[in-house]
């Protein structure tokens, strides 16, 4: 029987971005979701627990979610960088990933693997399903872990506790984001845990009932 799945969060300044370290309890492999501006905190966490990063997994290509890709890749050169194909250009272009606009131009190594809806990945012995939910960025994807109890969504900047990802960025679209949430997330069990790119965890049921932007009473 597979051991339980452990998800730890590292919050990176200056955007209070959530990076997640996902692994099986007792295992020595992990994958990292969206390493932000403080990858040293992730690397320290891994070193203290004698964990090996086997993949660098991006939900999307905005700078606060990819700023640590380079440091992670240098520390674990065999670990592929994964991103949705629609956001591929953001990794290597500081204008497109919006860091240049903040006066802190940042780029990432290019992606080693593009993911899209329908893909099934096995990372650190954990199976993930990939779903496309554009609207915050054109190639935004979310990752679903069904074997966890309850289910787990590694959601990036799609759905937050009481909010949603911004849609006023270049290539943003509220109708696309809303449609993606309704198509992909709302059919999931109500107790499905959502690990967002910013802020606290939430559940599908709570957001479906109460979210002021896309919930039942919106």
Secondary structure elements and their pairing?
Layout (H helix, E strand, L loop, with lengths): L4 E8 L4 E8 L4 E5 L5 H10 L3 E6 L5 H4 L2 H7 L5 E4 L3 H5 L20 E3 L4 E4 L2 E7 L8 E5 L6 E5 L2 E2 L2 E2 L9 H12 L7 E4 L5 E2 H7 L8
Parallel strand pairs: 3-4, 4-5, 5-6, 10-13
Antiparallel strand pairs: 1-2, 2-3, 7-8, 8-9, 9-10, 11-12, 13-14
Give the overall form: globular
**Low-confidence region ranges:** none
The DSSP helix count reads 6
Radius of gyration, whole Å: 16 Å
Main β sheet profile: 6 strands, mixed
The counted number of beta strands is: 14
What is the assembly state of the chains in this entry?
single chain
What are the key terms here?
6 helices, 21% helix, 6-stranded mixed sheet, 30% strand, 218 residues, alpha/beta, 14 strands
Please give a quick description of this structure.
The protein is built from six helices and 14 strands.
Describe this protein's structure.
- Helix content is 21%, strand content 30%.
- The model has no long low-confidence stretch (mean pLDDT 97).
- The N and C termini lie far apart (42 Å).
- The relative contact order is 0.14.
- A 6-stranded mixed sheet has the order 1-2-3-4-5-6, with helices on one face.
- The chain contains 6 helices and 14 strands.
- A hairpin with a 2-residue loop joins strand 11 and strand 12 (163-164).
């Amino acid at each position: 029987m597979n051991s339980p799945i452990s998800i730890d969060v590292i919050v990176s300044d200056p955007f209070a971005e959530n990076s997640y370290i996902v692994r099986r309890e007792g295992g020595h492999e992990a994958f990292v979701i969206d390493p932000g501006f403080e990858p040293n905190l992730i690397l320290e966490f891994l070193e203290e627990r004698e964990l090996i990063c086997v993949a660098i997994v991006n939900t999307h290509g905005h700078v606060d979610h990819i700023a640590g890709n380079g440091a992670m890749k240098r520390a674990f050169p065999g670990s592929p960088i994964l991103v949705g194909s629609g956001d591929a250009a953001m990794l290597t272009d500081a204008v497109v990933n919006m860091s240049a606009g903040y006066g802190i131009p940042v780029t990432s190594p290019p992606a080693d693997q593009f993911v899209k809806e329908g893909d099934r990945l096995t990372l650190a012995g954990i199976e993930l399903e990939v779903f496309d939910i554009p609207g915050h960025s054109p190639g935004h994807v979310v990752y679903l872990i069904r074997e966890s109890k309850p289910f787990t969504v590694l959601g990036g900047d799609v759905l937050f506790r009481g909010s949603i990802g911004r849609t006023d960025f270049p290539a943003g679209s509220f109708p696309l984001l809303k449609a993606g949430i309704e198509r992909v997330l709302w059919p999931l069990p109500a107790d499905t845990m959502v690990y967002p790119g910013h802020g606290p965890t939430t559940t599908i049921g709570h957001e479906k009932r109460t979210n002021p932007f896309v919930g039942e009473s919106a």
